[in-house]
Specification:
heterodimer, A: 7-stranded mixed β-sheet, B: mainly beta, 4-stranded antiparallel β-sheet, globular
Chain lengths: 115, 111
């Protein structure tokens, strides 16, 4: 069964450093998302991406964040200058079809730890 | 955006049927009701979605009354592996569809 994959599974970085979190969505999917979940808290939407551009972003997704689909398979989230409060699980998700908007397939997540 | 309310936690035993009810009083005409499951340190997983009446799949059933102001996720004969957080979401089933998660219901299944 196809699945969303994410790398690395765990990333440790120093405050102020740049990190890139990688995702490979399911191959025939058209819509891509990043969510994050701070330990013990809700899953929060960050950004959605469709047709090679951001379609929606939340207040969390400020200028420190960017997303890119550099080739036909990868979907990346970059945090330019990490802060302690960026420590969280970051989930990538994808979905196939305009009419199945609520059935998103989530990856296993990347645990980001900022020291 | 329709707000949802569901119990913070529920306890059950293996083999029992579990029903988790969610209220969404201000659901809009175009909104669908969707349930996700999340295990610790894993991404949420889609369980089931419905618009009205009853929907059933191999995992669960979803009951939605005529006024659509609430819904009930039914898990038949739960096992220990069903211990997870269950989220009720309400959103339009089209467009870019960002999912808004609440705190969910922590279901603990005991032997």
């Amino acid at each position: 069964e196809p699945e969303v994959t994410q790398t690395p599974s765990h990333q440790v970085t120093q405050m102020g450093q740049e990190v890139i979190l990688r995702c490979v969505p399911i191959s025939n999917h058209l819509y891509f998302y990043w969510y994050r979940q701070i330990l013990g808290q809700k899953v929060e939407f960050l950004v959605s991406f469709y047709n090679n551009e951001i379609s929606e972003k939340s207040e969390i997704f400020d200028d420190q964040f960017s997303v890119e689909r550099p080739d036909g398979s990868n979907f990346t989230l970059k945090i330019r200058s990490t802060k302690l409060e960026d420590s969280a699980m970051y989930f990538c998700a994808s979905r196939e079809d305009h009419n199945l908007a609520n059935e998103q397939f989530f990856g296993p997540g990347t645990r980001l730890t900022v020291l | 955006l329709a707000k949802t309310t569901q119990p913070i936690s529920m306890d059950s035993y293996e083999g029992q049927e579990v029903n988790i009810t969610c209220s969404h009083n201000n659901i809009a005409t175009n909104d669908y009701i969707t349930w996700y499951q999340q295990f610790p340190s894993q991404g949420p997983r889609f369980i089931i979605q419905g618009y009205k009446t009853k929907v059933t799949n191999e995992v669960a059933s979803l009951f939605i009354p005529a006024d659509r102001k609430s819904s009930t996720l039914s898990l038949p004969r739960v096992s220990l592996s069903d211990t997870a957080v269950y989220y009720c979401l309400v959103a339009s089933n089209s467009g870019y569809s960002t999912l808004t998660f609440g705190k969910g219901t922590m279901l603990l299944v005991s032997p």
